[in-house]
Design goal:
Helices cover 46% and strands 25% of the residues. It is α+β, with helices and mostly antiparallel strands. Keywords: Membrane, Transmembrane, Transmembrane helix.
Length: 219
């Protein structure tokens, strides 16, 4: 398992960009397994009624295998920031240079009332895409990346000219200023963005232009 080095003068510190809660991870794993079993059993049962026991088992297996793969993929996913490089671990490890990314978008996902604000970083190459979760909100509160992580991300994005990283850097700086003022969660830029996203959509993508217009309205 990959560990978090402390960093040396030659190697920048590696900062985790994820919330590591073993209890929450176990609960997510258990609920995901239960969901896979129920989903596969439902389709397998229907197929079994139509084509018999063998057909039901085959359909259940076909449904379950990709769902289990996705579940394990998400459970294994970890992401770190090392200097200006994102390090993403799933089945393997890949490195993405934030300063060289060709496209950066802001993405807001909505799952049962919980909204996640993320940066989608695309380096323009196969398997060179990473999603960095900046904040997760539910109701009037939520969980945000730490101050150090946000500051380091803002510094790295500032040096990206191809994807106008300056805009996203300014957004993170505004978030840091809001936290420093002691603003409530509902008054912070990331929360305001999450709240402004129209409901009824699982995932929504905001381009650099849309984020730029929003940042221009901030103090």
């Amino acid at each position: 398992m990959m560990t978090e080095p402390t960093g040396t003068p030659e190697t920048p510190e590696r900062l985790p960009l994820f919330h590591d809660d073993p209890k929450l991870r176990r609960r997510r794993g258990c609920s995901s397994i239960a969901g896979v079993v129920i989903f596969a059993a439902a389709f397998g049962g229907i197929a079994g009624l139509i084509g018999g026991e063998i057909a039901g088992l085959v359909v259940a297996g076909v449904i379950a295998v990709p769902l289990v793969y996705i579940m394990l993929y998400n459970l294994r996913r970890r992401i770190w920031l090392e200097g200006e490089t994102l390090i993403v671990r799933t089945w393997g490890v890949r490195r993405i240079d934030l300063t060289a990314a060709e496209r950066i978008d802001l993405v807001i996902s909505d799952v049962r009332g919980t909204r996640t604000v993320s940066l989608l970083v695309n380096a323009g190459k196969r398997r060179k895409v990473a999603k960095v979760d900046l904040a997760v909100y539910s109701g009037a509160g939520g969980r945000e990346l730490g101050i150090l992580q946000l500051r380091k991300l803002a510094n790295a994005l500032l040096n990206n000219t191809d994807a106008n990283g300056l805009v996203f850097s300014e957004l993170l700086v505004a978030q840091l200023k809001s936290e420093a003022r002691g603003d409530a969660a509902a008054e912070r830029p990331l929360y305001r963005l999450a709240s402004a996203a129209p409901g009824g959509k699982y995932i929504q993508r905001f381009t650099m232009e849309a984020v730029s217009r929003f940042v221009a309205t901030l103090d």
